[in-house]
Design goal:
alpha+beta; 3 strands; disordered N terminus; binds zinc ion
Length: 101
């Protein structure tokens, strides 16, 4: 049972996400979805968003099991709660930057 995963610990619940993702060789930020084999860039959090079929950041997974999706959605909720507004502000700022000339 050898699986390659980073010990980055970007999210407290990354372990669950890693069950459904596989690190793509060459870049640890690229994770391959085990359900649909799409490669998600941006790490395990992005993969979890992909599995949760969250709107916005990533394309949602079409093959994810309903059970898995439910669990991931729950975990992402927790994660966002803990992370607070920091991430949100970063995204908003990013959008503003794009809008600016
Ligand atoms: Zn997928």
């Amino acid at each position: 049972m050898s699986r390659s995963r980073s010990k980055e610990g970007a999210t407290p619940d990354a372990d669950y996400g890693w069950r459904w993702g596989e690190v793509v060789e060459g870049s640890r930020n690229n994770v391959k979805c085990k359900f649909c084999e799409i490669i998600v860039t941006g790490g395990i959090t992005r993969l979890e968003e992909h599995l949760a079929v969250e709107k916005g950041n990533v394309k949602g997974c079409e093959n994810v099991f309903a059970e898995v999706r439910k669990k991931i959605v729950e975990q992402l909720k927790e994660y966002h709660k803990e992370k607070g507004k920091a991430e949100e502000e970063r995204i908003i700022r990013g959008k503003n930057m794009i809008r600016r000339p």
